[in-house]
């Protein structure tokens, strides 16, 4: 490719025109006609990006010329008004701006005065960020970083934009991009729903492997107490004490969908096919949040804030799906009491089934097909509201098989789980009223928000880094990223340029 004209010329777009003309010559030349399509394709992509960069550079140079003329035409009082007392004008101040089409140079004028920092009117008009990375580049960095590893995001940004950012800078940009999420949701008003629409909340916890200095105090102390036994691998205690629990919360709307027990689980022996199972409630307007930094009670309070925004007068039925974790239950009940709202707590049926399947191994071998019928029988009894009978039946069966000690450990665990959560096992009422009884939404969120990104093999997180990615993945999943980014850009501008100091002056004049 022939070198294009780079000397200073009167037309700020002359370099873009010169380069494009050179590009046309190259594409029509004999050398290009001998190339395979993939090499021509690469030439087009690289050349197109450079054309775009030169057009952006030319536009910035044009604005710089007009700014210089406009500021030079102002008298001292006019400059003082514009520059908050600064009257001295200097031309040719430059800064780099890394953008999605490459790095450009922004030339602008400075208004100066003794003992005051320089003021650059063009910075506010262009809404330039404090750092060298443009907001468009930041947006691209966020969308790539939330999808996969930072190394992969860096490669993707490099392929699209050239070498405009480093890995540590990328991490910093992602963390800064999440800074306004809490404030953004405080300004949002959820879509209204009728009083018959159910309001469902669910909370869960998921561990994230952290850097040692970012563990919670109790976990860090336990990690230090763990004795290092093996020279070539970690011992069991060291493996355990590596994670910090993130708290996740989900709120959604759903219409009631009444069902019967056999709509939820097939009866022993399977379904006949004569009747199709009734479908369960379907989640709509789902909202997710999560935090590895905040304590669980604060995340639960955020979920209740979202629920209150949807139903401020408490006209709807509030259903809270739980997995039986006592600490979460206590926090949920305390928050409901504090807000004077009636909640209906339902124990997640999937966790119950897991306990039953584990208990089934006390009576059946892992490959025994009768284990499925055994689980279905007890599950159907629970779904019919006979939780006390199920507990009695499990104990009696263990006694009948003369199980002792470790042989009946799984049965005893299932019995304790059901007995401790008996108040939340009224599945017969829940099904008749059309309530959801499974916490699939929050379980899916735990996989999507945490496991798919923060559990990448070998990753170790700081609290700020994990928090930013967790919240950004949540806001993208909620479908709010586009609206949030507009809000974030506005907030960034307000923080950097809090006062409208332009008065009647226009840099495009």
Secondary-structure element sequence?
HHHHEEHHHHHEHHEHEHEHEHHHHHHHH
What's the total number of strands?
7
Largest sheet: 5 strands, mixed
Pick out the low-confidence regions: 1-9, 501-509
Helix content percent band = 40-55%
- Morphology call: elongated
Mean pLDDT equals 89
How much of the sequence lies in strands comes to 5-15%
Short description:
This protein is of the alpha/beta class and 509 residues long. Helices cover 51% and strands 13% of the residues.
Task: Give the tags.
single chain; 509 residues; alpha/beta; 5-stranded mixed β-sheet; 22 helices; 7 strands
Q: Explain this structure to me?
A:
With 509 residues, the chain is α/β, with parallel strands linked by helices. The protein has a domain at 196-211 and 246-450. Helix content is 51%, strand content 13%. It contains 22 helices and 7 strands. The longest helix is centred in the N-terminal third of the chain and has 37 residues, at 37-73. The two termini are 38 Å apart.
Topology:
Layout lengths: L13 H14 L2 H4 L3 H37 L2 H7 L5 E12 L2 E11 L8 H6 L8 H11 L4 H12 L5 H11 L3 H6 L11 E12 L7 H9 L10 H5 L2 E12 L6 H4 L19 E8 L4 H15 L7 E5 L3 H14 L3 E5 L1 H12 L9 H14 L3 H14 L8 H12 L6 H7 L6 H15 L8 H15 L3 H16 L13
Parallel strand pairs: 3-6, 6-7
Antiparallel strand pairs: 1-2, 3-4, 4-5
Helix pairs in contact: 1-3, 6-7, 6-8, 8-21, 13-14, 15-16, 15-18, 17-18, 20-21
